[in-house]
UniProtKB/TrEMBL annotation, chain A:
Protein name per Swiss-Prot or TrEMBL: Protein YIPF
InterPro entries the record matches: Yip1/4-like, Yip1_dom
Family: Belongs to the YIP1 family.
Chief location category: Golgi
Transmembrane segments: 59-77, 84-107, 113-137, 144-167, 173-191
Pfam families tied to this protein: Yip1
Protein's membrane topology: Multi-pass membrane protein
UniProt KW keywords: Membrane, Transmembrane, Transmembrane helix
Domain Yip1 residues, every copy: 55-188
Domain of life: Eukaryota
The keyword Transmembrane helix appears for this protein: yes
Automatic annotation (TrEMBL), chain B:
Keyword Membrane annotated: yes
Keyword Membrane: yes
Chain intervals for the UniProt region annotation (Disordered): 1-51
InterPro entries: Yip1_dom, Yip5/YIPF1/YIPF2
Membrane topology type: Multi-pass membrane protein
Protein name per the record: Protein YIPF
Cellular localization per UniProt: Golgi apparatus membrane; Membrane
Domain Yip1: 128-280
Organism encoding this protein: Anaeramoeba flamelloides
Compositionally biased tracts (Polar residues): 1-18
Transmembrane segments: 129-153, 173-196, 208-229, 235-254, 266-291
UniProt record similarity statement: Belongs to the YIP1 family.
Length: 192, 292
């Protein structure tokens, strides 16, 4: 059911997306969302630009990250454990992000649940890159270096978001689980 | 009475707020005096009506209410925030559980340091769930990773020419998580449920969970060294640490119990402390056998 071109309202020229978004072609809607996700990934990699970009959270990014990681890690696994590792990585990423967020909430931090899950998921992107690299370079030292770089990058990306929202005397308590979460995933990547 | 409470309020707030409160105190006092006068007048009116035998409908209760509402109207300018305590929230909301996480970094570190003290028993600073949960989780991650590392080293020793890639066993993580989480959370609950009525009657579940959780804390640094020791070194270190922490655990629980009264002290003491100690050491031994 495509919308004929003639019926497209010229309000594309306006900034009033709300009125025109029902009439634009679907490809445009999807592309806009995809560009948004791409911008968020770029923001996680390069810490310049709009700081509040990650505030309008979406869970597409974490889903893409999660699926990529699970597929990569399970494809390299010993045969009997492929399914287990796929499921395991999936569970670790989603429940891990959830638990870290709940922990920050319980310690009195003022974060919104899904926003925090979103940031933790997006910040995994450097680790995904290092996972992709380590498919091609099998030498142990090179992989260690890649994973280490990815680990440090991910932690920096997420800390910038999480740490201002925690009361001062509990900062280590709230940040340690983040560290543990990324450590687990880095180690899973390293060992493949 | 209301004057007294207002005075208490003024004492508890900071000095900067005192000026406003003083004004309000006098304001409220005026209103209270007014109210008292009004009530007295009303009472006099009531008496008059009764004496005259007129059966007018008694509107005075409504008027009383009216007087009371004007008492509430002028709010103190520096209002103390009425925060809901965590217990006010329902059990299924997240805020209810924040009471178990009311802890600072310093408290957690002190708890961990104090958890190996065979002489005096474990002296916890504050009861919380943060420590037990994250100690257990860290232990799972460490055991999972170092266990796999150990099996890699073992495979290297066996086939010295086969410098193969580490055979990664994800099951280690799953087993580790089930064992440790049940030890920290489910075992104390079972222990608490089956406690004898006279023994540990006053212990709460959360204290037990906290205790058992923190008793695992010294396995953490131990695990970091385990892959690099020889076989006998591993056994010695695991048994030592398990024995020490198990003993401190038993001491703590016995100290709790001494506050209760019981007749068959000696026999009961022995049995229960033995059970706790054995299960704790059993955990250490299981970790050694399965993972390292």
């Amino acid at each position: 059911m495509s919308i004929p071109e003639e019926n497209k309202i010229d309000s594309q020229i306006n900034d009033d997306f709300l009125e025109s978004s029902l009439d634009e072609p679907i490809s445009q809607t999807i592309l806009r969302d995809v560009k948004m996700i791409g911008r968020k990934f770029k923001r996680v990699l390069i810490f310049r630009g709009d700081k509040n970009l990650l505030n309008n959270w979406d869970l597409w990014g974490p889903l893409i990250v999660c699926l990529t990681l699970s597929v990569i890690l399970s494809s390299k696994a010993p045969d009997k454990q492929t399914q287990l590792i796929f499921a395991g990585v999936f569970v670790i990423i989603w429940f891990g992000a959830g638990v870290v967020t709940v922990n920050a909430l319980l310690l009195g931090g003022k974060v919104s649940f899904f926003q925090s899950v979103c940031v933790l998921g997006y910040s995994l992107f450097p680790l995904v890159i290092s996972a992709v690299f380590s498919i091609f370079f099998r030498h142990i030292i090179a992989r260690t270096v890649f994973v280490l770089v990815g680990f440090v990058w991910s932690i920096t990306a997420s800390l910038g978001f999480v740490s201002p929202l925690i009361p001062k005397n509990k900062k280590t308590l709230a940040l340690y689980p983040v560290f543990l979460f990324y450590f687990t995933i880095s180690w899973l990547i390293l060992v493949q | 009475m209301s004057e007294l409470s207002l005075e208490n309020n003024s004492q508890s707030t900071t000095s900067s707020g005192n000026d406003f409160l003083d004004d309000d105190l006098s304001l409220n006092k005026m209103i209270d005096d007014n109210n008292q006068e009004n009530e007295q007048q009303l009472n006099n009116n009531e008496d008059k009506e009764k004496n005259e035998g007129l059966e007018f409908q008694n509107f005075t209760p409504q008027l009383d209410l009216g007087q009371k509402t004007t008492e509430i109207e002028p709010q103190p300018l520096v209002e103390e925030k009425q925060d809901k305590s965590p217990n006010d929230y329902p059990v299924w909301s997240l805020n209810y559980y924040s009471q178990y996480f009311d802890i600072e970094t310093r408290d957690v570190l002190l708890n961990i340091l104090n958890s190996i003290n065979p002489i005096k028993g474990i002296a916890l600073e504050k009861i919380d769930f943060f420590g037990p949960f994250w100690i257990a989780t860290t232990l799972i991650v460490l055991i999972g990773s170092l266990g796999n590392f150990t099996s890699y080293i073992k495979s290297l020793e066996k086939n010295k020419d086969n410098a193969g890639e580490p055979q990664f066993d994800f099951h280690k993580i799953t087993y580790a998580s089930s064992i440790l989480y049940s030890y920290v959370f489910i075992y104390p609950i079972i222990f608490w449920v089956f406690r004898l009525k006279s023994f540990l009657a006053h212990t709460k579940v959360k204290q037990l969970i906290c205790l058992f959780g923190y008793s695992l804390s010294w396995l953490l640094p131990l695990c970091l060294f385990l892959p690099f020791l020889t076989e006998s070194g591993k056994w010695v270190s695991i048994l030592t640490v398990s024995a020490l922490t198990g003993f401190s655990l038993v001491r703590t629980i016995l100290k709790q119990w001494k506050q209760a009264e019981n007749e068959n002290k000696t026999k009961l003491t022995l049995i229960i402390s033995l059970i706790i100690f054995l299960i704790h050491c059993g955990l250490g031994i299981a970790i050694k056998i399965i993972f390292f």
